[in-house]
Structures are given as structure tokens and as C-alpha cells.
Design a protein that fits this description.
This protein has one domain (about 10-255): Rossmann fold (3-Layer(aba) Sandwich). It is about 35% helix and about 25% strand. The chain has helices at about 50-60, 90-95, 115-125, 130-145, 160-170, 190-205, 215-225, 240-245, 250-255; strands at about 10-20, 25-35, 40-45, 65-70, 80, 85, 100-105, 180, 210-215, 225-230, 235-240. Helix 3 (about 115-125) packs parallel to helix 5 (about 160-170) and helix 4 packs across helix 5 (about 160-170). It is globular, with a radius of gyration of 18 Å.
């Protein structure tokens, strides 16, 4: 768990009244959140509550209908001109997205590329990092996630847990301000979950700013500074981890947690 100090000048994520609908289905109904540098935030909630959609709105993989989200002062996917937000070009949005590393439920590794090639693709092609510099950074991160000896392997030669650890290293290689995790263990066999959670906890201990959508209550207890519980597109309650998990104020939160505790 981080020792982040919540000061107004150190906000990494500032979300204000975020709404998102898909057709007639309103998925996000006014989500607000602030995340400070070095904090680990866990978002809990049942399937369909809007957790993943909110995460994807942060780095503009989904466009919100109204509200605002900034990451370190940047509105990803938008440009601020004369006090108004305008859609940014795809090139500008891709560059802005470099502030955010995202780890998905599925590993999304390129099957025809080696582990090392998967890691250096974005830094070299999107961000213009010199190849040797990108390779050095990638090798350093493979050591951190315990896969230094697998840089020449292809994804099909790795276990699910190893593939997800490669995906975590890939998210880190662009040196993002913020890490997003969208149920990163949901596609893993139970015996492989622990190795991925251990890697994530190591990142938390290193002071990375993280928002994690997960059902892994043990990870929340061990690593989260604060927990948000979402249901039906709204934040039902939020607060320090111990308070939300051990003494939730709302019956809906208690009902949800009883399935896991």
C-alpha cells in the first residue's frame, strides 16, 4: 500500500460527472473520482456496473457523452482551446495515451512477435523511441516481472500468467503516469492468478499510480489505498480500503462483499 499524500496539487486523475450510454442503455450515470500520485485505487462491483467502461473512458478508448477526465492535466483524446474541449486528431490522441498504460482481461499480445518485440512496438512505432533504448527498457522490465529469460519466446510458448506479466511489462515500457488494470486475472486459471497479483502488488509498492478493476478482494486488502464500489453506473460508496471492506455503510456493498468474504 502506498504512502501517497492526498494534496490537491498532486492529482493524477480528475474525473467529473462522467456519463456514457450505448444506445438507450446508460452505463455511466455521473462518475466522479480523484486519484493522487502514488495511490492505488481498486474498483469493485458486479458485472455490468460500468467499471470497465469507466476505465476505458479514462484513456479515451471509449468516448464519454458528457463530463470530463484529465490525466496529469491532459484531457486524453481532446485539445483545450479557449476554455472548450475539442476532439484531438488520432495522432495527438495516441501521443496523449502514452501517459496511460493499460492491462486488459485478455493479454492482447501480437502472436507473431516475440516477447521483446511486443514490448518495443509502441515505444518505437508510436512514440519514436530509439530501438536500442526501447530494448534496454524492455529488458529491465522483463527482469522486474520475472521473465528476463523469455524475451525471445512467442506468446504461444508462455502460460497465461506469463503472458499477462508480459502485458504488464508492455504497459510499463512507455513509462506512463498512470496504470489501468481491467480485471487482469479474470482470464487466468486459478493457480496462475497469484503470480500476476504478486507482480501488481510489487508495482504498488514501487509507488506506481494505479486504478484496478478486479474481484480479487485479497489484492484490495493488501495494496489498495481506497476502494470504490460501483453498481448500475453509479459509485455507491468509496473510502479507505479498511472502511469499505470491513465496515461498509451501504447494504448494497455489504450484499456484494458477502459473496467474497
Amino acid at each position: 500500500m502506498s504512502t501517497a499524500t492526498a494534496t490537491a496539487t498532486d492529482v493524477v486523475v480528475r474525473a467529473r460527472d462522467v456519463h456514457k450510454s450505448f444506445g438507450d442503455l446508460e452505463v455511466l450515470k455521473g462518475i466522479s473520482m480523484e486519484v493522487h500520485r502514488g495511490e492505488v485505487i481498486v474498483i469493485l462491483g458486479p458485472s455490468g456496473s460500468g467499471k470497465s467502461t469507466f476505465l476505458r473512458c479514462i484513456n479515451n478508448l471509449e468516448t464519454m457523452d458528457s463530463g470530463s477526465i484529465s490525466v496529469d492535466g491532459t484531457y486524453i483524446g481532446y485539445e483545450l482551446r479557449n476554455g472548450e474541449l475539442y476532439r484531438a486528431s488520432s495522432r495527438t490522441a495516441a501521443r496523449q495515451r502514452g501517459q496511460v498504460g493499460m492491462v486488459f482481461q485478455q493479454f492482447n499480445l501480437f502472436p507473431h512477435m516475440t516477447v521483446l518485440e511486443n514490448l518495443i512496438e509502441a515505444p518505437v512505432v508510436v512514440h519514436g523511441t530509439p530501438r536500442k533504448e526501447a530494448e534496454a527498457r524492455a529488458r529491465q522490465l522483463l527482469g522486474i516481472v520475472g521473465l528476463a529469460d523469455r524475451e525471445g519466446a512467442y506468446p504461444s510458448q508462455l502460460s497465461g500468467g506469463q503472458q499477462q506479466r508480459v502485458a504488464i511489462a508492455r504497459a510499463l515500457v512507455i513509462e506512463p503516469t498512470l496504470l489501468l488494470f481491467d480485471e487482469p486475472t479474470s482470464a487466468l486459471d486459478p493457480e496462475l492468478v497469484g503470480e500476476v497479483l504478486a507482480t501488481m502488488q510489487q508495482l504498488a509498492e514501487r509507488g506506481h499510480t494505479m486504478i484496478v478493476v478486479t474481484h480479487e478482494i485479497s489484492f484490495a486488502k493488501a495494496a489498495a489505498d481506497r476502494v470504490y464500489f460501483m453498481d448500475d453506473g453509479v459509485v455507491v460508496e468509496s473510502g479507505p480500503t479498511e472502511q469499505v471492506l470491513e465496515n461498509p455503510r451501504h447494504e448494497r456493498t455489504r450484499e456484494f462483499l458477502r459473496r467474497f468474504l
